Amino acid sequence: MVAARSFRFRFETFLIYLGLGIFAFVAVTPFLHTIARSFSAEAPILRGEVYIWPVGFSLDAYERLVFGGTFWLAYRNSFIITTSATLVQMLMTILCAYPLSRAYLPGRNFFMTLIVFQMIFPPSLIPFYLTVREVGLIDSWGSLIWPYAINTFNMIVLKSYFQALPKELEESAIIDGANDFRVLLHIMLPLSVPVLLTLTLFYVVANWNLFLPAIFFINDGNKQPLQVILRDMIWSMQLATQTASADDFERLAGMEALKASSVIIAAIPMLIAYPFFQRYFIKGIMLGAIKG
Amino acid sequence: MATSAVSKTLQGASGQWKRYLAQLLITVWTHRYLYLMLVLPFIFFIIFRFYPMVGNIIAFKKYQLMHGIWGSPWVGLKHFRSLFDDPAFLRVLRNTLSIAALKLLVTFPAPIVLALFINEIRHMVYKRFVQTIVYVPHFLSWVIYGAILYIMLSPANGLINNVIASLGMEKIAFFQKPILFQPIVIISSLLKETGWAAIIYLATISTIDLTLYEAAIIDGANRWQLMRYVTLPGLAMTIVTLFILQIGFFLNVGFEQIFILQNSMVLTTGDVIETFIYRVGIRQARFDFTTAAGLFNGLVGMVLVLMADRLAKRMDLPGIF
Questions:
Q1: DSSP string covering A153-216, please?
Q2: Given an 8 Å threshold on Cβ–Cβ distance, is B53 in contact with A135?
Q3: Residues 28-47 of A with CB under 8 A from B
Q4: What confidence category does residue B11 fall into, taking pLDDT thresholds of 50, 70 and 90?
Q5: Domain limits of chain A?
Q6: What ipTM is given for this predicted complex?
Q7: Of chain A residues 153-172, which have a CB less than 8 A from chain B?
Q8: What average pLDDT does the structure give for chain A?
Q9: What is the pTM of this model?
Q10: For residue A256, what is the nearest residue in chain B, using CA coordinates?
Q11: Which pLDDT score, from 0 to 100, does residue B6 have?
C-alpha cells in the first residue's frame, strides 16, 4: 500500500518534469535551430541536414554581416532611438505620476478621469496617424518618441508607488521650506529607485523592439530602426530564394545561413541583457499586480 | 424679521463660499509647481490622445486632402453603411472574433497550467532552468520571432518540413495555407508568451499560506489533490481578475504579431481589423472609410472594457481602474 502510493507519487512527479521538459524543449528548439543554421555551411542547410547543431561549421554569414555595414546603421539608429525615447518617457512619466499621486491636489480627479477615458477609448490608427502628420513628425525619429511619451500603465504603477510612500516625509520637507520640485527630486525619487529602474527597463525593451510605429511613420530607409531593417532583409532574401533561377545561384550563395545569422545578430543585445532584465521585470510584474 | 434671517443665511453662505474659494486658491498657489509639472504631460495627452479622438469625425466626412479634417464635407453614416456592405470588412470582423475567441480559450488557460506545473518542481536548478528558458522569447520582438518561425517552417528546408519529409510525408507550405494561419498565430503566441504570463500566477502561488498545505497533507492529500484543492483555489481570484481583463481587451488580438506573420496569400483567414485599417487606410489612403472601421472597433472595445469593469466590481474584485 505504502509502496504503491510512493510509486504513484514519483510517477506523477516524473510526468510533470517530463511535461515541462518537453515544453521548454519545444520553446527553445527554434532558437537552437536558427543558431545552428547561422554557423553552418550553405550546402548542408539546403539539403536539410541541419537540426540543432551546425553542420560544416562556417562563419561566412557573420563575416558578410559584420563587414556589410547595414547592421551597424541599424544598431546605431535603434540605440539612439532607445536612449532618447527612454529619457523622454521616464521624464514625462515622472512629471505626470507625481502630481497625480498627491490626493489633496485640486483638479486631480478631473485629470485622472481624462487619463482613464483615453485608456478605455484609445485613439484609432487613422486619426492618430493624421495627427502625427499634422504635427510634422513624419520621417523623423520624433514620431517614435513624442506620440509614445507616456505609457499610461507605467504611469499608474509609478503613481501608486508614490502614493504608498509615507506622507510625513513630504510634510516635514515642506515645513523646512522645500518646494514640490525639491521634494520630488530629493525625497521621492531617491526612495523610488527600484520602481524607476523597472519602468526604465520596460521602456528600454519596448523601444528596442519598436516596430509598428516605424512602419507607420518612417519611410526613409536610413532612419529605420533595427526591427524594420531586419524584417526588410529577411523578406527580400525570402523573395530572392523563392524566385531564384539556376543562374542566380552565385548571387544567392549563402542566403539561408545569412538569414539565420541576421536574426541572431539582431537578437544578441537583448539576449545579453536578458539575465539582468529578467530580475527587474519580475519585480515590475509584482508591482503592477498590486494595483491590478 | 424673516427677510433679515434670509439675508443673513445668504451672507453666511456667500461668506462660506468665499472662504472656500480663498482656501482653494491658497492650495493651488502653494502647489503651483505640481501644476507646472503637469503642463508637459497635459500637452502630450491633448495632442496625441484627445485631438485624434476628435479626429474620429472624419468617419462622418468625405476626407479631402486640401480641406483637411475640419474643412471636408459631411457625409453622415455613408462610410459605416459601405463598411458593413463590404465583404472584405465582414471577413475581417469574422477573423478578429475567431482569433480573439481562440486566444481566450487556448492562450488564457495555458499559463495557469504552466505555473501549477512549475510550482511542483522541487529540484531548484531544474526549476530555474525551465523558467529561464520559457521567459526568454517574451523579450525578443515579434520581428525576430516571426523570422525564426519563417526559418523553422520554410517549405524548402525548414526544420519542421525536414522532419515531415524524413517521416515520408509531403512537405507543407505553412505560410501559404489560409487554414493554417490562425493555428500558427495561436501556437506562436503560446510558445512566446505563456512562460511570461505564468509569472503572475507563480507570484500568487508564493503568497498561499503554507499551513493549508500542511493541514491537507495530514488529512492524507496527495500531490494532485494538493494542486486541485489548495493551489488552484488560491489562484481563483487572480484567474477571475485576469479573465475579466482579457474579456475587456477581447478585440486586441495582437496587431504586431499578425501584421508580421500575415502575407497576401492568407488574408482570407489572417486579416484582422487593425491590419485592415493599416492596409486600406494608410497604404491606400482611404482615411475616412477606415476611420469608420477604427471608430467601430474603439466603441465596441470601450463597451467591453466597461462591462468587464462592472463585472469585476460586482464580484468584489479590484476592477480595471
A1: HHHHHHHHHHHHS-HHHHHHHHHTT--HHHHIIIIIHHHTHHHHHHHHHHHHHHHHT--HHHHH
A2: no
A3: 28-31, 33-34, 37, 45-47
A4: low
A5: 1-58, 64-292
A6: 0.89
A7: none
A8: 87
A9: 0.89
A10: B151
A11: 59
